Amino acid sequence: MMTTHWRRLLAVSGVALVLAAGACSSSNDNNNSGSSSGTGGGESTDNGFKIGLLLPESKTARYESFDKPYIESKLKELCPKCEVLYQNADQDSSKQQSQAEAMLTQGAKVLILDAVDASAAASIVNNAKSQNVPVVAYDRLAKGPISYYVSFDNMKVGQVQGQALLDALSKNGADPKRGDIVMINGSPTDPNAADFKAGAHSVLDGKVNIGKEYDTPDWSPDKAQQEMEQAITALGKDKIIGVYAANDGTAGGAIAALKGGGFTAPYPPVTGQDAELAAIQRILVGEQYMTVYKAIKPQAETAAQMAVAAATGKAFSGQETVKKNNGTVDVTSVLLTPVAVMKDNIKDTVIKDGFYTVAQICTPQFASACQAAGIS
Ligand code: BGC
User: Fold this and answer.
1) 246-289 tens-digit pLDDT
2) Which atom of ligand 1 lies closest to the CA of 219?
3) In whole angstroms, how far apart are CA 220 and each of 186, 210, 248, 249, 251?
4) How far is the CA of 7 from the centre of ligand 1 (A)?
5) Ligand 1 pocket check for 189: Cβ under 6 Å
6) CA–CA dist 27, 153 (Å, integer)
């Protein structure tokens, strides 16, 4: 390690600066900002600072409708003088990389990152770290030296989906192996998708026949629709008794393919995730069987607290944390609990929580379905 004395002496000439830089990297000290403190921690909420918020896509409704406004409003409360720099990557990981670089150039002191590609995002995280900027991993655990992570128990999400599908297929003593299910998983660059898939398999394997299974690039609803069309062609319409769709966007694509492929009500049970408004309405009319409600508000607020803690050097506290290894470090993490939503508990979950009002769900088109489900 170089002493402060030596740093000062070396800093007086250009040649010495080059030497200093060499000494820094060879001593494996990747804090090249000149500060001797650990990553982040030097900011004050009295003066305010810039916070970068990077979300992955906009085809899934949650990011623009819930995550962004909830995170921004909590940050405003915790640090009124802070400025949020926001970007959405539209499912493009190199775009996300440039967005992160621009935020660092603009002086962001902490990043909240929901990575498009968790492995590729390691370069964002390393780059931030080299500038003494901590990174909070949001929802998806990116690789690299992450400071904090907040998400849901994603294996549990997959288990909840798989169990709901298995229960629906076994209703009234029916044989869940009487036909095939199709599995439409999420994006291969999203570590959550791997957890959802593993969780679902842990429940379904051996108990159902999986006729076809796909990983869906970019979580694209259009690609999910094509996958489902292929599955219907390959397996035959009459063979398909259920669909595991990893989220509501892919469920929407799969349901469009079912309708296009000649399926009519009662539809085979289709799972989902995110409690998107369109999915809640599909559940009411019997097109989708279930979704998973993940309370985004506490997730978003926790991310805001973590970001402010990391930037100001105060320990994040007040919630139960676990350590989650991301291949680089053990990350202090908060993992929230997902909830299955079916027709009969829409009222006690998303409506009770204020996620949606009755008026939002029960538009004229869905009025009679709402009434039948006792939602008014
Ligand atoms: C999130 C889901 C979301 C999906 C697609 C996942 O990482 O956990 O809530 O549906 O990405 O954006």
Assistant:
1) 999 999 999 999 999 999 999 999 999 999 999 999 999 999 99
2) 5
3) 8, 21, 11, 7, 10
4) 46
5) no
6) 38
Closest atom of ligand 1 to CA, residue 294 = 9
Domains, the chain, with CATH or none:
34-152+296-336 (3.40.50.2300), 154-294+339-372 (3.40.50.2300)
Tens-place pLDDT, residues 79-135: 999 999 999 999 999 999 999 999 999 999 999 999 999 999 999 999 999 999 999
Question: What per-residue confidence (pLDDT) applies to 136?
Answer: 98
- The answer to whether residue 38 scores a pLDDT higher than 90 is no
For residues 34 and 26, give the distance between their C-alpha atoms in angstroms, rounded to a whole number: 15
Cα torsion angle, 278, 69, 334, 90, sign: positive
165: Cβ–Cβ under 8 A, 6 or more apart, which residues? 181, 200, 204, 208, 242, 244, 269, 271, 289, 290
CB 109 within 8 A of CB 43: yes
- pTM of this prediction? 0.89
Atom 7 of ligand 1, residue of closest alpha carbon: 192
Distance 61 CA to ligand 1 centre (A): 10
**How far does residue 179's CA lie from ligand 1's centre (Å)?**
29
Integer Cα distance of 181 and 270 in angstroms: 10
The token pair at 133 is: 């900027």
Residues in Cβ contact with 140 at an 8 Å cutoff, skipping those fewer than 6 apart: 56, 114, 115, 118, 151, 190, 191, 192
Q: Which of 274, 291, 299, 336 to mutate to test the pocket of ligand 1 (most atoms within 8 A of CB)?
A: 274
Q: How far is the CA of 152 from the centre of ligand 1 (A)?
A: 11
Average pLDDT over all residues of the chain: 91
